[in-house]
Amino acid sequence: MPEQAIPYTLIRSKRKTLAIQIRPTGQVEVRAPARMPQAQIDAFVRQKTPWIQRHMERIGQAARDRAASVPFTDAEIRAMARHTAEILPPRVARFSALAGVSCGRITVRSQRTRWGSCSAKGNLSFNCLLAQCPDYVVDYVAAHEVCHRLEMNHSPRFWAQVERILPDWQAGRAWLKQHGQALIARLPEK
Predict the structure, then answer these.
(1) What tens digit of pLDDT does each residue of 111-165 get?
(2) Which of 12, 27, 43, 75 is the 20 to 30 Å CA partner of 4?
(3) HSE (CB half, 13 Å, CA atoms) of 6?
(4) Comparing C-alpha atoms, which of 171, 121, 120 is closest to residue 143?
(5) Whole-prediction pTM
(6) Closest CA to 17 of 1, 29, 31, 38
């Protein structure tokens, strides 16, 4: 019996690689190089179907959790952003020293899709919801983003760097996988 195709929106651009993003609404977006053959894109989506289905189930669970949870107020979000902005710089400094890198500006935002990011210029951005996470989770996200100063990808070399500066990083990642969507679900709709 043939695998059922996952419906998706295709976005072509000047990028060089394929990527899949699942929106909080459950909409699947595939980003592809402008000239990549459609058959190659479809094969990629078929190969990633188990991953897509797992993430869509998480989004469905988050939607169910959202229906049962109270959204954060604007005042709570501002307070979390202030707290996160206080606790992250010392962690970033510590992990930067361990990694042997420098980092640029640190910003904190209310984000629905990321816990942190690192720009090509070395600026780091973090989710204000980290204020609701255990310390070891905050350490994991800080170390993760600092390691992007060494490797701007999630290759085995990147994870080796994370392991080098934070040997117990897996616990933080596991916590986010288990509890992160429920936290994000409490952000008010924009």
Answers:
(1) 999 999 999 999 999 999 999 999 999 999 999 999 999 999 999 999 999 999 9
(2) 12
(3) 27
(4) 171
(5) 0.67
(6) 31
* Bridge partner residues of 12 (DSSP): 32
**Where do the domains of the chain lie?**
9-68, 74-184
Q: Radius of gyration of the chain from Cα atoms?
A: 18
Please list the residues that pair with 124 across neighbouring strands.
106, 118
Q: Following CA atoms 22, 183, 84, 103 in sequence, which dihedral angle do they give, to the nearest 10 degrees?
A: -20
Rounded distance, CA 95 to CA 118, Å?
14
116 three-state secondary structure: strand
- Cα distance between residue 26 and residue 181, in whole Å: 13
Give 23-36 as a DSSP string. -TTS-EEEEEETT-
Angle of helix 38-47 relative to helix 49-68, nearest 10 degrees, comes to 60
